[in-house]
């Protein structure tokens, strides 16, 4: 197989704009005593992701801005990993809230066009980036909260499941779940493990086999999300939950998180290359390619 660019090389090439000082855009006014100078807020953005770090609280907001549906393309995944790594290495940052800047969609999951009609090398590179995103997010030392302000199927649901806490907008039109089976594909073992760790084996087994997508109120009932709030309260609620989690000493929380997640993370790390090869041989099968093409056509027809 031809050499593929490593994530490090992609990061070097990506041209993330340098850190710059920005006026604060969210959440501070209520906490800042009048008359005091604002503590610095640092922001950085690349094409598909916007990050603002409020140094006074140690909380960053990461917003997905890849219209029309925030699909997790190779570029998106690369930018996501770069942004998360920057925050992870920044001592001023202790927690991250993930939300979408695209109305009604949190993320539509893996970009299907990256898995269809491409070379084996491309599939391998794409899958390594998906693995990387999950390893970094699920294994993050920071407190991670998903503020799910729209629909979140498949890989979008994985992003939310990989966080420490999920708050979703109470709109029943927004749905969430691992619907891979509906596309004729299979969620890999580490998607499944992450799902089981949130909702338990029985619900995960049934939901994965049926490829179920759940409207927000149903998702709440079995703990796929932790809370529902009206859209206008989402940010405030996410900040309040974050403050609660950050009230604990970092080291105790981090060691506990690592204890709970280590076995699942280690399993992928130990079988990473095998998982890439499984993905490549599965996704390049003509029958699977046909299912994906049909699914994309179905999405287009739904519009007309
Ligand atoms: C052994 C181990 C083996 C391992 C085996 C392999 C494991 C793989 C695991 C896979 C994980 C995944 O995440 S697979 C991805 C699953 N994702 C989904 O099923 C979501 C599909 N999308 C939707 O349901 C909807 O688009 C939704 C997100 C709700 C938004 O609906 P809307 O009406 O607002 O918008 P639409 O008109 O549908 O979409 C707008 C445009 O975006 C496109 N689009 C939508 N979702 C897209 C997507 N995920 N990737 C690319 N493009 C997408 C549509 O085709 C449209 O394109 P134009 O017509 O050109 O404008």
TrEMBL record:
<keyword id="KW-0413">Isomerase</keyword>
<comment type="subunit">
    <text>Homotrimer.</text>
</comment>
<keyword id="KW-0007">Acetylation</keyword>
<keyword id="KW-0496">Mitochondrion</keyword>
<keyword id="KW-0809">Transit peptide</keyword>
<dbReference type="GO" id="GO:0006635">
    <property type="term" value="P:fatty acid beta-oxidation"/>
</dbReference>
<comment type="function">
    <text>Key enzyme of fatty acid beta-oxidation. Able to isomerize both 3-cis (3Z) and 3-trans (3E) double bonds into the 2-trans (2E) form in a range of enoyl-CoA species, with a preference for (3Z)-enoyl-CoAs over (3E)-enoyl-CoAs. The catalytic efficiency of this enzyme is not affected by the fatty acyl chain length.</text>
</comment>
<protein>
    <recommendedName>
        <fullName>Enoyl-CoA delta isomerase 1, mitochondrial</fullName>
        <ecNumber>5.3.3.8</ecNumber>
    </recommendedName>
</protein>
<comment type="similarity">
    <text>Belongs to the enoyl-CoA hydratase/isomerase family.</text>
</comment>
<dbReference type="InterPro" id="IPR018376">
    <property type="entry name" value="Enoyl-CoA_hyd/isom_CS"/>
</dbReference>
<dbReference type="GO" id="GO:0005759">
    <property type="term" value="C:mitochondrial matrix"/>
</dbReference>
<dbReference type="InterPro" id="IPR029045">
    <property type="entry name" value="ClpP/crotonase-like_dom_sf"/>
</dbReference>
<keyword id="KW-0443">Lipid metabolism</keyword>
<dbReference type="InterPro" id="IPR001753">
    <property type="entry name" value="Enoyl-CoA_hydra/iso"/>
</dbReference>
<dbReference type="GO" id="GO:0004165">
    <property type="term" value="F:delta(3)-delta(2)-enoyl-CoA isomerase activity"/>
</dbReference>
<keyword id="KW-0276">Fatty acid metabolism</keyword>
<dbReference type="Pfam" id="PF00378">
    <property type="entry name" value="ECH_1"/>
</dbReference>
<comment type="pathway">
    <text>Lipid metabolism; fatty acid beta-oxidation.</text>
</comment>
């Amino acid at each position: 197989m031809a050499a593929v660019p490593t994530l490090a090389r992609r990061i070097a090439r990506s041209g993330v704009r340098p850190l710059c000082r920005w006026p604060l855009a969210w959440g501070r006014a209520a906490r800042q005593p009048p008359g005091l100078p604002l503590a610095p807020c640092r922001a950085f953005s690349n094409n598909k992701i916007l990050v603002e770090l409020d140094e006074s609280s140690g909380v960053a907001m990461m917003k997905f801005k890849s219209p029309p549906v925030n699909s997790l393309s190779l570029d998106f995944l690369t930018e996501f990993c770069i942004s998360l790594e920057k925050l992870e290495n920044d001592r001023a940052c202790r927690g991250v809230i993930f939300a979408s800047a695209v109305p009604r969609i949190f993320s539509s999951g893996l970009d299907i066009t990256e898995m269809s009609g491409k070379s084996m090398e491309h599939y391998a590179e794409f899958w390594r980036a998906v693995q990387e995103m999950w390893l970094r997010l699920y294994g993050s030392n920071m407190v991670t909260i998903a503020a799910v302000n729209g629909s979140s199927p498949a890989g979008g649901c994985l992003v939310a499941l990989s966080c420490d806490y999920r708050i979703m907008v109470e709109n029943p039109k927004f749905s969430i779940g691992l619907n891979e089976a509906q596309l004729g594909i299979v969620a890999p073992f580490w998607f499944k493990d992450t799902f089981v760790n949130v909702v338990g084996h029985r619900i995960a087994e049934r939901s994965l086999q049926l490829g179920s997508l759940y409207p927000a109120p149903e998702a709440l009932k079995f703990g796929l999300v932790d809370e529902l709030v009206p859209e206008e309260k989402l940010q405030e609620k996410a900040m309040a939950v974050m403050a609660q989690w950050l009230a604990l000493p970092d080291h105790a929380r981090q060691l506990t998180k690592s204890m709970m997640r280590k076995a699942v993370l280690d399993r992928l790390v130990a079988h990473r290359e095998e998982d890439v090869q499984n993905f490549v041989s599965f996704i390049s099968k003509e029958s699977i390619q046909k299912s994906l093409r049909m699914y994309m056509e179905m999405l287009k027809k739904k519009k007309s």
